[in-house]
Each structure stands twice: as structure tokens, then as C-alpha cells.
Amino acid sequence: MTQQTMSVDGAVLTEWVRKILDTHVLTARQSVFLDPGQGVLLVGQVISVTTSSGTGTSGSGTSGQGIVTGETIFEFQSQSPSVVIREMNRSLFKQEFNFEALGIGGLDVQFADIFRRAFASRVYSPALVQELGITHVRGLLLYGPPGTGKTLIARQIGKALKAKEPKIVNGPEVLNKFVGQSEENIRNLFAEAEIDEKKFGINSPLHIIIFDELDAICKQRGSTGASGSGVNDSVVNQLLSKIDGVNSLNNILLIGMTNRMDMLDEALLRPGRLEVQIEIGLPDEFGRNQILKIHTNDMRKSKRMADDVDLKDLAKRTRNFSGAELAGLIRSAVSYAFARNVDPSNLGGGGKTGGGEADVLITKADFEMALKEVRPAFGASEDLDRYSLNGIIPYSAEFLKLRQDLMVLTEQVKKSPSSPLVTVLLWGTQGSGKTSLATHIAKQSNFPFVKIISPNQFVGYNEGSKLMGIAKAFDDAYKSNLSLLIIDDIERLLDFTPIGPRFSNNLLQALLVLVKKIPPYQATTAGTTSGSGATSGSGEGGITAGGRRLLIIGITSEPQFLQDSKLASAFQLAYKQPLIREKAAVLECLNYRRKLVADIDQLEANRIADLVGTAKIGVKKLFMALEMASEMSKPQTIKADTAVQCLRDFGVNI
């Protein structure tokens, strides 16, 4: 016999209950008998009572109680599948829900997407959802770089929702050494939701399951190879069947987090499973400011932060810092304040000096030192100054034009809506200063992410490890809104040798693909995340909204090899690094050195310029020869004959 379903209008029921129970005191777990006027007596129970923050005391569970007034908000939940309560607007989040109080900063656009895709349908009554013939979103995936607050967001959203206490699972904990136990662990996570689904039907409460490090258990099936036990594949199959199998549940929300979305099984990402995929990237300036405020909230309230600390200025100067790195920056600043009030020679006696704890104050100077100590993982990871120890010398008009052209390209990458990817090949003889010029451009452009891919990083690596290292450098660049990659000494990176010639075809093919790959589109315009993390936004640093942008500068001393291998044609532009080949250019370099080191007089500088004449010399090679001549001439100044002999030793034809 089919059970008859009764529909009750939530708005009518609310007004009726408020009228009947006006000025009555209600207590959690109190039983209430209601007659909605349809010939059926409804037996209800007060699940919880939350009072306003005005005069009453707030409480819930067995101790919560309050007085019903005209402002009381009722929320009804049917415990029987045969009774459907139609409510137009259900409160999904707790009344005290506040991102800043939860330690989450700059979540604007991402949370709007999460709410629209995953929670908006749950605001309306189950009856309306049933009439529309749709199911709720069952899965949400948060992905992005480490330290951006994915785990914190998932935990805090789970706490803020009016739902069952979320189950939080670390991915590796699911795995078990016993056969079949890993799959059973997955089934146990869904057991309570299955019971509620059978008992309450469409009125079932929401169950949230949070998977941290999802990539640990949901790798692409078949990726473990013949040596694997097959447990990984079975776990993925079990999870897929529970989310969207034959007896799929409509009362669950699975929230997964991962740093490696590329490792997940593609079946897990299709609609009906983890269909809402939100990137939690690096925070923009607005997001960083919010995160800094959250982390310094207590010290500001307790007057432990000096007035000279400007959080807005810190937010501007910490581009590409993740939320976790911003927290580390603050800890580093506090450590300097602690150290300032500690006497290392008296650690046995407590170590404190002066007023002790009363003198602990975090100042601007502490943050300045912390900025030197804490570096972002996706920032300018290289010490660019060491690539141009002698500075950049404007030795010729040709060089000045090249530098100007490269600076124009950096502005094009930042501002042009049609140039998300600009690639430049810089070629010339060894010792002509190509790397120095590229790193100088990187410093002047003020790109938040700068990475140098150099052969010396891969000494002793096999071909596969090199491929992974190069691909990772590009992946890291895609995580920043604005990035600059310098691929130094390309021919060495490809294991090129002119005898044969020989080179690594796999590395060549990888570079051919990566150099032409356009960075991923970034649709958001404001940052996300949290106390330990945050997200991204475009529009920072003069960047045109709508996508991530990448400038690649390739450097080679073997242009013919790159032409023959077709790698040169993968670059959009090619520039030749000019050599010093005029007397005026030689004299310009010598006069520049005289300003730095007074080891050559004007007369000898003029003689060197005359003797060198129009010989073709790389600027780096010229300075190396001058350094050698300086050591040979000590304690006297450099003589022209000594300098010319050193240039000949370096292979310059004079």
C-alpha cells in the first residue's frame, strides 16, 4: 500500500505556531503537539533554541531556552517522509555566521561561486526541488597551491552550516593493510547518510564529508601499474558508487581538497560527482590585507603592535604570499620582538631583560626584518643580483634599444588583453651578457613571480627528472597572475653536443609544447581565503583582468641548433645580444669600471680602447679580463698591455 504524502505550507505553519505559542517559554528537547488544521495531529520536538544577543543568554541543546515573541524565527524539519513542509526561504547558515570571525579573509568571489553552485538549491524547500526534478550538488573540490587555506575553508564552512557535524577525513587514513578494509572505511563514511535518507526521504538532514589530501586515495585508475595492489582503484570505484551510483544519496555534500588536481581520476570530476571545482589560489592585495588583519587582530586589541605598522603597505609588498606564508611572516616579526627583550647571556635566569613581557611590542622594524627572512614559494625565488655583479652598462645605442624593447614587452604582458603569453629568444655569443640582461629586465619589471630554469639545477638528474623539474617550473608560473620564466642556456638543458649532433628529443618536445602553451584563464577578480590561506584575483600590479600572464625569455649561444630543431620558431620574437665592437663602447665600459673600482687611470683606459679598436668582445668577457688584469697588476693600477694580454688569453682576437 502506497503511503500518502501530506504537504504543509511552512509560512502558514510559522504564523500559526507563533500565534499559539506567543510569550511561551520553549526549552530544547521539549515536546509540542500541533494541529495544522488538516485533521492530523503533529507531534513536534524543540531541537534547539538560540536567543538573540541582546538581553537573553544564547544556548542550544538541553540547556537552551527562550521566550517566543513576534520576532521569533521558526525552522521546521520533518522527521517523516510522508510529511513535506514547504518553506520558501530556509536559513542554511547559522545566524552568527561571519567570515572574519571564522578566520577567513578575502573570500568574496569564490564563496559566491560556492554558494550559487553548491548551496543555493538547499535554501529552498525539498518539495520545490522535487517539483523541479533536480538533485542537489553532491561534490565540491577545492584546489590550489599549498598554504592557501583550502582545508580551513572546508572546515569552517562545515561548522557554519546548519547540518550534521561534518566528518573530516585525511585521505591516507582511509587506506588499510587488510584486504577490503579500505573500501569498508569509505562505506562507513556514508552509513549515517544512508540511514537518514531511508528514514526521512527528501527531509533528510545534510551530511558533510570533508576529504583532505584527496589525491592520496583518488589517483587516476591504472596509474599504479602492474606492481600495484589494485587497492587504489577499488577505493576510487567505491567512492564513485557512493556519490553517484545506483543508490546515490541526495543528502550528502562531499568536499575534497587537493594540491594536485591533475592526479585525480577524471571520472571523479564529472557532473554529478565533484562537479563544482573552485580554485583557491594566491591572495590579491585586498585578500592579503584581510588576512594580515585577521592574524594581527589579537595583538592590535591588546596594544602589542606599534602604530608605525601599516598593514596596507605590507599587503602591497607581499605579492604572491600565500595565507600560510603571511602567518609565517607575522610569526617571524614577533620572534624579533621577543629576541629584543631576551638576554642570551642570562638564559638560566629566565633570559628576560628590562620590563620583560611589558616591553614586548611588534614594530615596523620587526616586519622589515621578517620580510627579508620569509620568502614566498611562488615569488622571485632567485637572487637576481648575482647574475649581474657588475651592473648593467649602457655601452651602445644598439644595447639600449634592445633593453627598451624588452621593457616594452613586459608592459605588454601586464596590460594587453590579447597577450597572455609573450615569448622571446635572446641569442648571442658566450660572455655577451644575455643572462645579466634577462635578470635585469626581471628586476625592473617587478613581476611577482620570477623563475630561472638553468642546467645547473639538474646536474646528475636523469631525463625523466629533468622533464618533471621543467614542467613543475611552468606549473608554478601558472599559479601566479603575472610570471616571468627565464630559460637559461637552452642547448645545455637539452643535452646538446655538436658531435653528431646529439640532444634529448624528449626534452626538446617538452619545451616545444610548454613554450607555446597559453596560461590558464582566471575568471575571478577578487581574492579568497583564510587565516592560513587565501586566494587570488586579477587586476593587481596593472594586470588586465581575465587571465594569467606569462613572459618567457629563452637564452642560447647556439642559435643554429635551435633553428635546425625548430625550437627557435616556437618563440614569438628573437633578439641578438650586441657585442662591444667600437672604441667608444670599450671606453664606456672602462669608465664605468673606474667609477666602481679605482684601479685604472684615464690615460691607460684610452690606450686600451685604442688597442682593442673594433674587436668584437662580449661585455662579460671584457670585465672578466679586466678583473684578471687587476690581480696581475696589484698593487699598481692596470696597464694597457696587461689588459690586452688578458683579453687575448680569453680568446679575443686583437
UniProtKB/TrEMBL annotation:
Pfam families: AAA (PF00004), AAA_lid_3 (PF17862)
Catalytic activity: ATP + H2O = ADP + phosphate + H(+)
Coiled-coil intervals: none
Function text: Required for vesicle-mediated transport. Catalyzes the fusion of transport vesicles within the Golgi cisternae. Is also required for transport from the endoplasmic reticulum to the Golgi stack. Seems to function as a fusion protein required for the delivery of cargo proteins to all compartments of the Golgi stack independent of vesicle origin.
Cofactor note: Binds 1 Mg(2+) ion per subunit.
Protein name: Vesicle-fusing ATPase
Residue ranges of every copy of the AAA+ ATPase domain listed in the record: 136-284, 420-579
EC main group: hydrolase
Keywords noted in UniProt: ATP-binding, Cytoplasm, ER-Golgi transport, Hydrolase, Magnesium, Metal-binding, Nucleotide-binding, Protein transport, Transport
Cofactor(s) listed: Mg(2+)
